[in-house]
Amino acid sequence: MSAEVRPRPRGRPGGSGGADLLAIARDVFLTRGYPGATMDQVAAQARISKQTLYREYPSKERLYAAVVRDWVDRGYDAMRPHTEALTESTDIRAGLLRLAHVLHTGVLSEPVLRMRSLVATESARFPDVAADYVVRSWTRNTHLLADALAALAARGLIKAEDALVAAQQFTWLVLGDPLNRLTLAAHSEPPEDGELARQREEAVTTFLSRYGPPAPH
């Protein structure tokens, strides 16, 4: 069965659409904030007519919601293979350290922090968008990690009676301190690589002290 081919929306020649349009809109929202962003600015930067933009997104509110959902789904898709790879680990400590490094690299990156800040700032205005952001990012990724930990427990490589609780604890051990500092402490400098490496080591050590493999009889 062939996929349906949708005609390209009419607009200025060479204008941006689809994922490229949402990326442009995201940059406008991040640069100017929601109140300062306008549909005119997005259309101009995307090199499309306002009519084309409004046909796709009838309001700035709809465009903002689409930008946030697109961003969070991309993040989930990027994170998923790394979390699923944990289920194949034979060296659990090494596997957890690799995943912790991915979490630090992704969640503590400037683009992710800026989007989290935007969503938090606009959460009172758009509570449904903020709630969806949490569910589609933090909650989905935590459940995905819980599935991986449950698979490891089934193989006898860790002991986790409640894999979801274990996933929540691992995530906060890895991310809690640096994420809070970067999002709540004004003018906080990004942690140095060495500091983050030590933090990952301590987080994994603490996690394994509770959920590590059962001692041999």
How would you sum up this structure, described in words?
With 217 residues, the protein is an all-alpha fold. The protein is 72% helix and 0% strand. The chain contains nine helices and no strands. The chain has helices at residues 18-36, 39-46, 50-56, 60-85, 92-107, 110-121, 127-154, 163-184, 193-211. The model is unreliable at 1-12 (pLDDT under 50).
Order of helices and strands: HHHHHHHHH
Query: For the residues shown, what is the average pLDDT?
Result: 90
Number of helices: 9
Helix-strand makeup class: mainly alpha
- Shape, per Cα inertia axes: elongated
Q: What percent strand?
A: under 5%
Sheet with most strands: none
Which helices and strands occur, and which strands form pairs?
Blueprint: H1 18-36, H2 39-46, H3 50-56, H4 60-85, H5 92-107, H6 110-121, H7 127-154, H8 163-184, H9 193-211
Helix pairs in contact: 1-2, 1-4, 2-3, 4-5, 4-7, 5-8, 5-9, 7-8, 8-9
Task: Name the descriptors.
217 residues; mainly alpha; 9 helices; 0% strand; disordered N terminus
What is the compact description of this entry?
This protein is mainly α and 217 residues long. The chain has helices at 18-36, 39-46, 50-56, 60-85, 92-107, 110-121, 127-154, 163-184, 193-211.
